[in-house]
Specification:
about 220 residues, mainly alpha, two-stranded antiparallel sheet, 12 helices, 2 strands, about 65% helix, elongated
Amino acid sequence: MEYSGGMKRKVMDSTSPMKKLTLTICLILAVLLGSLVTGCGSDLDSGTDFDSGADFDKGLVFYKSGDYATALGEWRPLAEQGNADAQNSLGWMYHKGQGVPKDYKTALKWYTLAAKQGDAYAQIGLGGMYENGDGVPQDYKTALKWYTLAAEQGHAHAQLVLGIMYDHGQGVPQDNVYAHMWWQIAASSGDKNASTNRDIVAKQMTATQIEKAEKLASEC
């Protein structure tokens, strides 16, 4: 069944004893990771000076025009100086092979540098690499760690994916309460897919479980 956002979800019939939704996470990542470069640059680190911000935006213009090599040339010096937006952008370009040959090892390096500075987009990038085993052994627990850091910063896509991981029991024991909680939080930020997922999993839960999930969401 097709849903908005390019995602696919197979929903069991409501009369089935196993009303478990199945969400293809790699397709979700294609949607949410697509914002990793275009979503940054608007709020650079407080330690980044004005000229660095201007240079990043210049690279962003080249990137959006499809001139990846020139964008890379603008961003690399900034990344080497510690600009988290530029580091994340290099991570994305090496991850996807834009302007450079695809190189997971180098992508991991740049994502990690930015993620450790608290960049939510880089944290999602790392989560995706560990979730899918891109250049690293597949490790759901490590993926969950990075997604959680991004989710705690209010990133709705990370919250959406955390809900999926709790629903599927990936990196954590399967838990409908926490799946509902994360989807409720993401839905409150306007994520329609999270809202749909929350309503689906709610059909598998007792009233007490739903009340607990809603209480947890309100406390976050």
